[in-house]
Design brief:
The structure is a single chain. This protein has 144 residues and is mainly alpha-helical. It has a domain of 83 residues. Helix content is 48%, strand content 7%. It contains six helices and three strands. The chain has a three-stranded antiparallel β-sheet with strand order 1-2-3, with helices on one face. Helix 2 packs across helix 5. The radius of gyration is 14 Å and the shape is globular.
Length: 144
């Protein structure tokens, strides 16, 4: 549990979190969430829809977590990353307990990245997760 009584996710749970999120949001909608790099554009549109809905971050926290888990799983499946538990200094810096480690050793925070995209102005470069992936250093050259 974190300081506010919320359950803190573990690295080994994140693949299942992403899978559950995809199952939940695609049950009624035919969203192409297939863990491809192109599907990150769909995530961009979903975040934009949440932002335009006018609800605050706390009201959409569950959806943002699911989207962050999905983005992280795209990094795992397409860029050679692995889910990791952040150490104490990383938790303080990122504000999250888990993230991904790239093949070159760099760590990234997909859960926080999604929140940042939600919080960003509509015309901000921070907005696109597809662009984030395409410019991400440390990706594996081979796609799994």
């Amino acid at each position: 549990m974190d300081g506010e009584g919320r359950r803190v996710p573990r690295a080994e749970e994140m693949r299942g979190q992403a899978r559950e999120f995809v199952a939940r949001v695609t049950v009624r909608n035919r969203l192409p969430l297939d863990y491809s790099v192109a599907s990150l554009r769909v995530v961009d549109f979903l975040i934009e829809g949440l932002r335009k809905g006018g609800r605050g971050r706390d009201e959409v926290a569950g959806a943002l977590f699911g989207l962050g888990a999905y983005v992280g799983e795209v990094l795992v499946r397409r860029a050679g990353a692995v889910w990791v538990e952040f150490d104490e200094s990383q938790r303080l810096y990122f504000g999250q307990s888990v993230g991904v480690r790239m093949p070159d050793g760099r760590v990234w925070n997909p859960l926080g990245k999604v929140v940042n995209c939600f919080d960003a102005a509509a015309d901000s470069a921070e907005q696109s997760l597809q662009t984030f992936y395409l410019t991400l250093p440390g990706r594996s050259r081979r796609v799994a």
